[in-house]
Amino acid sequence: MIDLHSHLLPGIDDGSPDLEHSLAMARLAVADGITIQACTPHIFPGVYNNMGADIRQRVELLQLALDEASIPLHLVAGADVHITPNLVQKLHAGEALSLYDSRYVLLETPHHVLPPRTEDTFFELLNAGFVPILTHPERMSWIDRHFDLVRRLVQAGAWMQLTAGALLGNFGSKPRYWSERMLDEGMFHIVATDAHDVERRPPRLRDAFEVLCRRVGEAEALNLVSHRPYGILENQPTSAFPAPPVSSTMAAGPDDSLLRRLAALWRRT
Ligand SMILES: [Fe+2]
């Protein structure tokens, strides 16, 4: 499995605090069956002032430490890019990073407020040839109010990343509800851990994979944790991938059996 969203790099955001912790996280990831791990620290001006070149260097250093400790985990560089103005220019200048220098960019919004220019930012990136991937929409407190916008983004060609722990209920019932609903509507393209530590938010995909197999079938579960992530690292276009399937109950439309029974009763009276 390939995990394209994690805060494994030590000491540069709210993820791993130090090298020992990063090594422990990496061991967990390997034990879970993860072979490739993207290091995607926050790039959030004023909060986490990380820059592309520095992230690349730190990934190389951490890879050396993993190799020295004989931990068979392959690292690639990326970033969890906060929505700010001029992202296309920042990506071209190397200030912000896409995933492994591909066209795919992890984009995060604030947790409680959707910035007014969110949709514009996604369209600017799409027009410039990038594929923005919205990180964990299922966990955003604004999703009830702005679900139509999320749908429009997907229709426009943006991708969505589900967090493994959200599907398992580790973030509460509401994120689990949106995880399941968006999966059923065929709106998620990849699943990642968004790992921050070894305990509360560990780098684990396997438990979620089991749940995914039951919910969307094994073929799509593999697409979510392995095939699409691998294609991202190969910088394949979105057209190279099968679209996430819509569950048969969703495809059939809302359950109107109650309405039909009421209508029949009405006709009889
Ligand atoms: Fe993140």
Descriptive notes:
- The structure is a single chain.
- With 269 residues, this protein is α/β, with parallel strands linked by helices.
- It has a single domain, classed as Alpha-Beta Barrel (TIM Barrel).
- Helix content is 45%, strand content 12%.
- The chain contains eleven helices and nine strands.
- The protein has helices at residues 19-32, 52-68, 87-93, 118-127, 143-156, 164-167, 173-184, 206-216, 218-233, 248-251, 257-268, and strands at residues 2-3, 36-39, 42-43, 74-77, 80-82, 104-108, 131-135, 159-163, 190-192.
- A six-stranded parallel β-sheet has the order 3-5-6-7-8-9. Strands 1-2-4 form a three-stranded parallel β-sheet.
- Helix 3 (87-93) links the parallel strand 5 and strand 6.
- Helix 8 (206-216) crosses helix 9.
- The longest helix has 17 residues, at 52-68.
- It is globular and about 50 Å long.
- The chain starts with a strand and ends with a helix.
- The mean pLDDT is 94.
- Residues 5, 7, 80, 135, 194 line the site of fe (ii) ion.
**What is the strand tally?**
9
Order of helices and strands: EHEEHEEHEHEHEHHEHHHH
The total count of helices amounts to 11
* Architecture per CATH nomenclature, i.e. the level-2 architecture: Alpha-Beta Barrel
CATH class: Alpha Beta
Shape: globular
Strand order of the largest sheet: 3-5-6-7-8-9
